[in-house]
Design a protein that fits this description.
Blueprint lengths: L14 H9 L5 H8 L3 H10 L1 H25 L7 H12 L32 H4 L4
Helix pairs in contact: 1-2, 1-4, 3-4, 4-5
Length: about 130
């Protein structure tokens, strides 16, 4: 059996609780990285290697968004509330958009029933083509 090379991981399953505690108060993933004392590369590697850690981050993002949404909802009547800053935060962190982007690709065939029983040009009198006013 081959021996693993490199430093042992700092990852501990208890870190999932730290993630959830921070993020349920609106913390970002970057704040989690700082609190855990790891670099971003390690954070993303742990997400790939540890299902429990990955799931806690996914749940944490939902909790964080819920916290921020509640902050916005409950602060709307507060004159000191910075709505623009809050909204920009929501757009940047949680991918809120001002409008829905719709991309129409492909071909569409539309059949229209005009009530006309013949095709254009069918049965037309072509005499006007021969009309010579010279």
């Amino acid at each position: 059996m081959a021996k693993k090379v490199g430093r042992p991981t700092k990852y501990k399953p208890e870190m999932c609780e730290t993630v959830l505690e921070l993020m349920k108060e609106g913390a970002s993933q970057f704040e989690v990285v700082a609190k855990l004392g790891i670099c971003e590369d390690t954070f993303y590697r742990w997400k790939q290697e540890n299902k429990e850690f990955s799931e806690s981050i996914k749940k944490g993002v939902r909790l964080s968004q819920a916290w921020w949404e509640k902050e916005g909802r409950t602060s709307l009547r507060d004159r000191e509330f910075n709505y623009t800053g809050w909204y920009m935060n929501m757009k940047n962190r949680f991918h809120w958009a001002d409008k829905q982007e719709v991309k129409n690709e492909g071909n569409i065939t539309v059949l229209v029933d005009t009530g006309i029983s013949r095709s254009p040009g069918e049965g037309d009198d072509d005499a006007w083509l021969d009309d010579d006013d010279s």
